[in-house]
Amino acid sequence: MATEKPKKIKTNPIRIECKILFVKIVEVDSKNEKFDAECIVECCWNDDKLMKALLDPDLLTKQEKGFIDTSNLEITDANLKNLLDNIDEIDYDPSKFWSPEIFIENAISVNEMIKYKMEIIEKDRNFYQKYIQSVKKQKPINLVNNLTVRVQEIRRVKGIFYERLELNDFPLDLQEISVRLSSKKSINEVLLIENRQEPSTVDINSFCDGQQYELFEHVTSKRDTKKDEFRKIVRSQFIVSAFVARKIGYYCYNALTLIFLITSISFTAFSFKPLDPQFRCQVIALLMLTLVNFRWVITQRLPSVSYLTMLDKYSIGSIIFLFISFVWHSMIGSRTFSEDLASIKRLDRYFFLGVKSFKEKNLKKIVPRNYMSS
Mind telling me which residue stretches traverse the membrane in this protein (predicted)? Predict the structure, then answer.
């Protein structure tokens, strides 16, 4: 299934106001591209048919499966008392009344507890002013027609969610962890929107993976659509994202610094005479094997992605640096450039100073000062 841009809605769908509260984020697993979290998902919608059904207690006592037919019911002042009595005594049943059939798109393994609440609200807050004007015109409007039932679905979700991580800047990466809500109904029936009165939030104090990541208070939400190829419909999506930044301390001390030290040891090869390449090449070859093995250990902590992370570029660059040094020591020892010993020493000195300045310059680009202090 491919994600598509939101399309123009042809009909008048029921708008579902959504809100997600990240109660606890337990762990962010970079290697398996998933995160463990607990969140509360709230979805609210207005149901006029349910409003009519609550007016008639006989309909609510029926036990047939399926939706209750409210097409012939009318709201009057006489049966309004039934509404006030039933809304506190009757539990919402999604098998009898209309439901948006919300589910979590990126859930891998979760446990859900769902409960429903119903309340009577006004459709139009300015309806009373319109009512006063209609009375003055001797054409009063029925006040009951401005009432509707607001259904609130509250689900507590705890489990594992899938999240595709972008590791181009690893280990200086900022990750977006999201919960994706969707409906089994078409976008022409259900439209998931943001609850602007109560926006989504995240509790940063209950973050359990603080040793590796820093959780931010900022939360974003957006609407999207997804094409269901099996049912040939387009479904509405609502995505809420929190953001975590990886703490570089561990990788700075145990990866970047060690790679830098391993490659820096290659300069000790210059302590041997240029005409003794067997000693120089032995040092460089040993360092190259050490660095290749060290890189293999680091990659075990990351998923097998088809692109290079920043740490990959630095480690591969260090291996290439050792390879160039290996070639240089082989050529300078075989007197390829000159037969004169003084010229050989001078070229060797220039190469030493050149690679030293090149390595220091690139280290500053890869590890900025603000990250070194974190």
Answer: 248-272, 279-298, 318-337
